[in-house]
Amino acid sequence: MIQRFEVGPRMSELAVHNGVAYLAGQIPEDTSQDIVGQTRQVLEAIDALLAQAGTDKSRILRAEIFLADLTEFAGMNQAWDGWVAAGHTPPRATVQAALAKPDWKVEIVVTAAV
C-alpha cells in the first residue's frame, strides 16, 4: 500500500511505502530571507511532513540538498547544524543546481524510516 499526503494535480509532498517516507523537494515560502532563513523554513516544512508520516528527523535515512550558489554552503550548514538531531546525522549530499525559481536559494529532499 502507498499512502500519499498533500496530493496536488502535479505531485504529492509525501509518499509512504513499506515503512519509508519519501518527501518531495521542500523549498522556502519567504524568499526575501537569506540562506539561513530560507534553510530554516525548509527544515520546518520537513519536520511538519515527517510528523504527518508519524516519524521525525532522527529517522532520516538520506538528505539531498540543492543550493543555487555553493558560496552559501556555510550559511546553509549553520541552519542545518542547529536543526539536525545529534547522534542521528543522516548521509547527505549537497550540490549546486539551477533551482526552478530564481529567488529560491535552497531545496532539500529527504527520505526517512517510519
TrEMBL record:
Belongs to the RutC family. This is Aminoacrylate peracid reductase. It comes from the Bacteria. InterPro entries: RidA_CS, RutC-like_sf, YjgF/YER057c/UK114, YoaB-like.
